[in-house]
Design a protein that fits this description.
Length: about 325
């Protein structure tokens, strides 16, 4: 799967911002029809998005559109307009405020009909369900498995906090009065565990104090440490931090590649067919290789190059 370390939110009602987004070094751009677009501007935003998707000048970013949620009057026309107008240039639909599997299935069915009707490859357009309320989190397992199109589970912290009556107005910071632990831990871990259980990516939502890059770094580092794959960025100033924080550090990437090479060598016939071996001062085995694989995969997906090589010790002569 392509990386989603940095996911840029871009209002569909703002053609200038969309134009700028095309050249930014993010892994994904999502063009918004939902909360960043005023009701009176939704119809025009659909047209802007279709035009922008069909334009040249995009880099290698995943191109995603966030439609309105299924409880509104806009969702079906959002999907139809965007896929009819620019389906070939669309990688996924971000579906906000998901409450149950039926909402994902409904989108899947609509996408399938549109793909068939317009000669598009059936099943190629992905779905990113966004978890933003208590009901969605309770139903997350069924949501994650409702369609093979689901690629990533996305946290929507602002709506989520509102939905559970959390007493704070600052996304990414702890609610005042909660002086122990992390108030978001359960939600984040539920999203992460579900993503990992089903082979999906886990994406953290926005950090709204866009001028506070240190605050963004702190928030991103927390979810990156848990194992999340990426985070939304709302401003160009957050992009480098996201790409860096959700990529392995060079030293960790080098070490991971080294462990994989050493493990492959030592478990091989000519390397002695041993399962647990020393690499420097560290004992490595199958589980170490699995951890190393995770970091190596992330590094490779991020286009990193290793700066060290494994030199096999003299192969054992039996
Ligand atoms: C994003 O959609 C959020 O609600 O935080
Ligand atoms: Mg939201």
């Amino acid at each position: 799967m392509k990386p989603r370390r940095s996911v840029l939110a871009c209002p569909g009602s703002n053609p200038k911002m969309i134009e700028k987004a095309k050249g930014l070094p993010v892994d994904e751009v999502f063009l918004d029809l939902e909360d960043a677009v005023a009701p009176a501007a939704k119809v025009q935003a659909r047209a802007n998005i279709v035009a922008a998707l069909n334009d040249s000048g995009w880099g290698n970013q995943l191109r995603v559109v966030r439609v309105n949620d299924w409880t509104t009057e806009w969702t079906y026309a959002d999907v139809i307009t965007v896929v009819e107008g620019a389906g070939v240039a669309l990688d996924a639909i971000l579906l906000p405020k998901v409450t149950d599997a039926g909402q994902v299935r409904a989108l899947d069915l609509l996408l399938t009909q549109l793909e068939k009707a317009h000669g598009l490859e059936v099943g190629r357009i992905g779905i990113e369900p966004q978890l933003e309320n208590a009901l969605g989190l309770r139903n997350i397992d069924e949501i994650a498995t409702a369609s093979p199109r689901v690629q990533a589970l996305v946290f929507g912290p602002a709506d989520f906090m509102a939905s559970i009556n959390m007493r704070t107005l600052v996304v990414g910071e702890q609610p005042e009065g909660y002086d122990t632990g992390d108030a978001y831990h359960h939600i984040l871990m539920t999203i992460l565990l579900t993503a990992r259980a089903h082979g999906l990516q886990a994406i953290d939502g926005p950090y709204l104090q866009i001028r506070d890059v240190d605050g963004f770094r702190r928030a991103a580092a927390r979810t990156a440490a848990l194992g999340f794959d990426g985070k939304w960025v709302l401003h160009p100033g957050q992009i480098d931090a996201a790409n860096e924080i959700f990529s392995p550090r060079q030293a960790d990437y080098d070490r991971a590649e080294l462990i994989l090479d050493a493990y492959a060598f030592h478990t091989s016939e000519h390397g002695g067919a041993r399962g647990a071996v020393m690499l420097g001062d560290e004992m490595i085995d199958e589980a170490s290789a699995k951890m190393a694989q995770v970091i190596a995969d992330k590094g490779r997906a991020a286009g990193m190059t290793r700066t060290t090589r494994f030199t096999p010790p003299n192969a054992r002569s039996e």
